[in-house]
Write a sequence for this structure.
């Protein structure tokens, strides 16, 4: 994809993370077109954070986001977000659960409005379980086709892929590093800003995490740290290309309808 | 001294004349299949057939004039299409197979697609018949007498785990379940049909379609097996695997020899006499970046290292019409290499001739191997803009297809 050459730091367009305390520390947001790994163990709010970015961009900048969930159902995601105070009526939420209706359902995306397209691969897997899927017909192809068809239909700008770890369990990667390279390049060619969720403590992930980390433009690490008789969520930007970033560990909280990164809780340097 | 004279003459042999680009097309889509060439319309002039990533089959004259184009339309439904590679539902992934299936003196073009459809086109690109397999057809089709009835059939494998046997009108005669997907091209060997699978098996079927033997490699086989006829008239199957080895298999399915490289082998090993010594050599590329030339015992005669993987099948032709064969290989390093088929002898030490070191000459003049070794010799190097997928001969021209969809004609100028 031919892109204009940036001649000054101000020329780099950025997408906010909508985390108060992070955006200020990464020059205002993640550079457009970046592939950012959102890495952490279960319960660290990876999915919520990524959904929040797509949701806020839909409301504030009328952008269209695509959220591909490989395991968590659409209902479960929405229930969780609504419980956090997200108002789904403020965006045009398009839900795809059947590949056979993909082309017609994607037409529900409204031009000029903020859209969030959620593709529930878990539901799709249930529907196509009787369809013969031979060994080389990978779910990676399904994911790439969803991205391609959505791009053609509505030129979306933001993508969340939840999660890479689930993809590894669904597909056989003969050469993970090479196949990941081509997947990442595919996303770059699509000219979208991508958030790829990567799960910690998954044996299938550990072996390829190094490749993910190497290939991605940015890495946001979320973790839970025991503190006294509690658990503290923390966030750290490990890597962000084309960005001067503060690599400190922050406490990560969601309160008053927004994510916050704060100095506090356990001393991050200990 | 006559030998030494020849040594020095060959050592400094460069390609006479030059190879120049005579024509180039940008097809606007990728090419991932090797091109094929043959005089399909029997007019005495060869054509070149190219299959593309967006499902086009295009025929050119030997000099690069477009003759016809056919678009594979596919039959995958929306759900099936989602499981195929994005934007490549009708992609032609393997070299078109050219064969006179209706005995009219002209060759038909047979191609398979990602969506699993095999098309037979006549020499003008007109659709004759098509057949839908259960999944992608990633290897080329082949004509061989599978059932021993004296008539040839069209045989190909599919990613659905079956090998299909069709009659020459495209009607199914037999579907053989092999237990894993097939990305290779079938071969006929000593009355047996050889099918290689992506589980690394080399399976020999007899005319009753029963397994005669199975040899298991440790990788995936995408390469087409080739038959080696040895000096003693014994025949062997030679095929590479992604486990980095080239295998030579006896007719009873036992291993004759294997040659280990340091990279996966994806394409057919060419077997021909490349140095006019009346013995067959085995020529193949590997993802360890090397082109290898072996003798029939699996011993390395010489090798030549490029800067990246060699995926395509080596092409052997006499490009400059000097009576000596050249080996042409495309590499992922964006170069086309034209190598001398003879190689050269790199002399490190000649007893009695002190001070002569690291000289080069024709290896055929050396009776002992001790003073040095045979190495590959590059006659021409042609830089192109991207990865070279494959080359074929188009009359006196050389044609190369690149991954980003360029088709380049190269002509030898004296």
């Amino acid at each position: 994809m031919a892109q204009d050459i940036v001649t000054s730091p101000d020329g780099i367009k950025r997408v906010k993370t909508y985390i108060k305390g992070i955006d200020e520390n990464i020059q205002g947001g993640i550079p457009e077109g970046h592939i950012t790994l959102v890495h952490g163990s279960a319960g660290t709010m990876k999915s919520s954070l990524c959904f929040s970015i797509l949701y806020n961009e839909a409301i504030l900048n009328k952008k269209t986001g695509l959220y591909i969930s490989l395991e968590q159902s659409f209902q479960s995601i929405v229930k969780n977000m609504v419980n956090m105070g997200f108002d789904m009526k403020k965006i045009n939420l398009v839900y795809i659960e059947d590949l056979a209706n993909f082309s017609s359902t994607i037409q529900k995306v409204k031009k000029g409005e903020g859209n969030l397209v959620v593709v529930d691969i878990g539901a799709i897997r249930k529907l196509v379980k009787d369809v013969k899927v031979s060994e080389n017909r990978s779910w990676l192809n399904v994911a790439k086709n969803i991205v391609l068809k959505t791009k053609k239909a509505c030129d979306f700008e933001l993508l969340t892929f939840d999660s890479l770890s689930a993809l590894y369990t669904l597909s056989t990667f003969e050469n993970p590093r090479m196949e990941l390279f081509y997947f990442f390049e595919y996303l770059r060619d699509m000219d979208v800003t991508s958030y790829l969720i990567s799960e910690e403590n998954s044996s299938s992930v550990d072996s390829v995490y190094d490749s993910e980390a190497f290939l991605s433009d940015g890495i946001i690490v979320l973790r839970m740290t025991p503190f006294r008789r509690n658990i503290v969520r923390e966030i750290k930007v490990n890597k962000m290309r084309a960005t001067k970033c503060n690599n400190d560990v922050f406490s990560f909280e969601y309160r008053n309808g927004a994510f916050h990164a704060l100095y506090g809780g356990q001393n991050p340097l200990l | 001294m006559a030998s030494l004279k020849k040594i020095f003459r060959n050592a400094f042999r460069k390609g006479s004349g030059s190879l120049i680009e005579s024509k180039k097309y940008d097809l606007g889509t990728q090419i991932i299949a090797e091109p094929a060439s043959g005089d399909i319309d029997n007019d005495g002039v060869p054509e070149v057939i190219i299959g593309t990533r967006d499902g086009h089959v295009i025929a050119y004259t030997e000099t690069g004039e477009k003759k016809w184009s056919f678009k594979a339309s596919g039959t995958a439904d929306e759900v099936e299409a989602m499981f195929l590679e994005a934007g490549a539902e009708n992609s032609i992934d393997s070299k078109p197979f050219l064969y006179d299936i209706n005995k009219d003196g002209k060759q038909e073009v047979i191609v398979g697609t990602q969506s699993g459809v095999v098309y037979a086109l006549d020499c003008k690109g007109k659709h004759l018949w098509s057949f839908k397999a259960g999944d992608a057809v990633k290897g080329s089709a082949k004509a061989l007498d599978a059932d021993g009835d004296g008539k040839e059939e069209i045989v190909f494998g599919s990613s659905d785990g079956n090998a299909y046997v069709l009659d020459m009108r495209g009607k199914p005669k037999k579907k053989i379940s092999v237990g894993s997907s097939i990305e290779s091209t079938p071969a006929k060997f000593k009355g047996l049909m050889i099918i290689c699978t992506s589980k690394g098996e080399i399976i020999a079927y007899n005319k009753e379609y029963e397994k005669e033997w199975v040899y298991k490699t440790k990788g995936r086989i995408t390469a087409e097996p080739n038959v080696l006829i040895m000096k003693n008239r014994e025949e062997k199957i030679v095929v590479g695997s992604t486990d980095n080895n080239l295998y030579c298999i006896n007719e009873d399915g036992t291993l004759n020899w294997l040659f280990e490289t340091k990279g996966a082998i994806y394409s057919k090993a060419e077997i021909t006499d490349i140095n006019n010594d009346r013995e067959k050599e085995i020529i193949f590329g590997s993802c360890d970046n090397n082109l290898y030339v072996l003798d029939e015992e699996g011993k390395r005669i010489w090798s030549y290292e490029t800067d990246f993987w060699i995926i395509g099948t080596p092409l052997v032709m006499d490009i400059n019409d000097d009576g000596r064969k050249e080996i042409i290989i495309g590499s992922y390093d964006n170069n086309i290499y034209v190598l001398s088929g003879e190689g050269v002898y790199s002399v490190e030490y000649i007893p009695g001739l002190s001070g002569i070191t690291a000289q080069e000459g024709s290896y055929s003049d050396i009776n002992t191997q001790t003073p040095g070794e045979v190495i590959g010799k590059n006659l021409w190097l042609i830089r192109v803009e991207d990865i070279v997928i494959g080359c074929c001969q188009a009359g006196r021209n050389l044609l190369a297809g690149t991954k980003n969809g360029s088709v380049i004609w190269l002509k030898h100028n004296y």
Residues 121 and 127 of chain B are 5 Å apart (CA to CA).
